[in-house]
Amino acid sequence: MNKPVFERATLQDGESANVISENIEQLKTIFAEAFGEGGVDFDTLRQLLGDAGVIDEGEEKYGLNWHGKKKARQIALTPSTGTLLPCPDDSVDWEKTQNLFIEGDNLEVLKLLQKSYAGKIKMIYIDPPYNTGKEFIYPDRFQENLDTYLKYTGQVDDEGMKFSSNTETSGRKHTNWLNMMYPRLKLARSLLTEDGIIFISIDDNEHANLKIICDDIFGQENFMGEVCRATGQTTGQDSGGLGSSFDYILVYSKSVGFDLCGLPLNDKDLTRFENEDERGKFAYDQMRKTGSNDRREDRPKLYYPVTNPDGEDVYPIAPAGYESRWRFEKKAYDRLLKDNFILWKKTKRDDKEVWWPYVKYYLEGRTKRPSPLWNDLDGNKKAARDVRALFDGKKVFDFPKPIPMIERCIQIAPNSSPDDIILDFFAGSATTAHAVMLLNAKDSGNRRHISIQLPEPVEEDSEAFSAGFKTISEISRERITRAAKAIKKDYPHFDGDLGYKVFKLSSSNIKAWNPDRADLEETLISHQEHLVEGRSEQDILFELLLKRGIDLAVPIESKTVIEKNIYSIGYGAVFACLHETISHDEVEGIAHAILKWHEELKPASDTHVFFRDSAFSGDVSKTNMAAILEQNGITHVRSL
């Protein structure tokens, strides 16, 4: 039987990563014995996971359950059939920038980013809705599918969709919030690098629930701690309680075995390093263990004599007179003494001067461990003033987070690098993007930022609306633009990336097959063209990037052959010719042009080539195109 001339791309090719299929394939790799002709043998899988007994499904288990949890988990596993449409006119430095701003429902967008960014995001910071019970920005049924978003943004008609006030009287205050957060966090985890980390700001309303669902999604073993942050203002006193001057940041890593990075020393820290020798500036601390577990009986091997400059033995005796202990064993002391890390100084004991040993700590390369209490940073009022200053004194956003707080999160991420990618999928006022650009300017970094924001309408009686902003996403983009200009003014020698590419969530460029039984003939005629009418070649190209798992910031190059554009995406990972007509006489010229370009680029991975299915005059032309390409090593040829 003859091989089909082209394998045609379908709507399923237009879907985001199929998480279920990928999970099954990974399980097969690890637990091959648990798979047979009938699929997964769950009893065998349980045994392989160390469960020797029979699990009682009715047995109560520790965890957080709520109405809709199973559906929320399933929603995270359901692929998106949307795409991201490029918006060069709304972007800044479109051709060169590697930063992204994506307008859309973050659930759908996170799904669409799976193939291109899985395992590539070093740090995620989010400041989700705090669920005060007074407002909730997501429409009812919002998390269910792309159609809901398209209706919400006016891309398709709707009878009108009500917003959920999410008041206490709805009886679903926590349920709605948990159903919104759970699938988004599930998807976010898969985007992190193995040493990646997520910071989540939250207040008392959902703090306890968020901790439990994060333990479920990230694993209790990956809980890195909790930051208690001073906000600089007290809230909640009108409820009759204590009120609060703090909010919290929950910190989770993707995997175990990675430590937080230290923070740069501040001016107060540096005052300790006032001594200097041939190695450089140093501070010192006494060699005797202080605090808890400081007695000889706690660590007997750490009680031994050392010789002072006068040749006398010195033992670790505490000021109270009891036998204490040193910080390390004798071998370590001898090595430190030999390498000149031990400092002897005279100190007063019982009204007389005696020699006492100290250990030197040098300044070079030294950092300090981050504290769980962050009360030394700008508060919310300062953050609000900073945003107002950017917008000519207008209050365009409520409750922005401080830039130094985000900078600190970036700095302490495990293996923090100046080339990291940072994601914020509740972008809001775009503080994260601002912080990334500012930190790059300070340390000449090349960090990239990806921001995702729902086009939530602003109130018509607000200063933001009066200033010309219709949605929060418009404010977000303008914040990034104005922040970039301010950074360039304050750091004139910084030549790093201060731009951003804008994309907007929409339906796929590939038509879905939805037969109309009442007029099947008309349905067949309309489906002869498989691509959505009115979409540009650029729209289709960026969907190909998403579906092939290519970074949205990679270059797209083009050449003109026989008055038709040929595109190379990702240095030859994908080639495409999307012209509406390719005649029989043009096939050979286009095929050889692709082959020549392919040879020049020498892509490291398999190359995929795409054409419009309707462009060819017939199957003979398709067969010739496929044959020429396949005979020269390009076997993945598809039509759209």
TrEMBL record:
It comes from Pseudomonas reactans. It comes from the Bacteria. Keywords: Methyltransferase, S-adenosyl-L-methionine, Transferase. It catalyses: a 2'-deoxyadenosine in DNA + S-adenosyl-L-methionine = an N(6)-methyl-2'-deoxyadenosine in DNA + S-adenosyl-L-homocysteine + H(+). Its EC number is 2.1.1.72. InterPro entries: DNA_methylase_N4/N6 (IPR002941), DNA_methylase_N6_adenine_CS (IPR002052), N4/N6-MTase_EcoPI_Mod-like (IPR002295), SAM-dependent_MTases_sf (IPR029063). Gene3D superfamilies: Vaccinia Virus protein VP39 (3.40.50.150). Residues 121-442 form the DNA methylase N-4/N-6 domain. GO terms for molecular function: DNA binding; N-methyltransferase activity; site-specific DNA-methyltransferase (adenine-specific) activity. One of its GO terms (biological process) is methylation. Belongs to the N(4)/N(6)-methyltransferase family. This is site-specific DNA-methyltransferase (adenine-specific). Pfam families: N6_N4_Mtase (PF01555). It is an enzyme of class 2 (transferase).
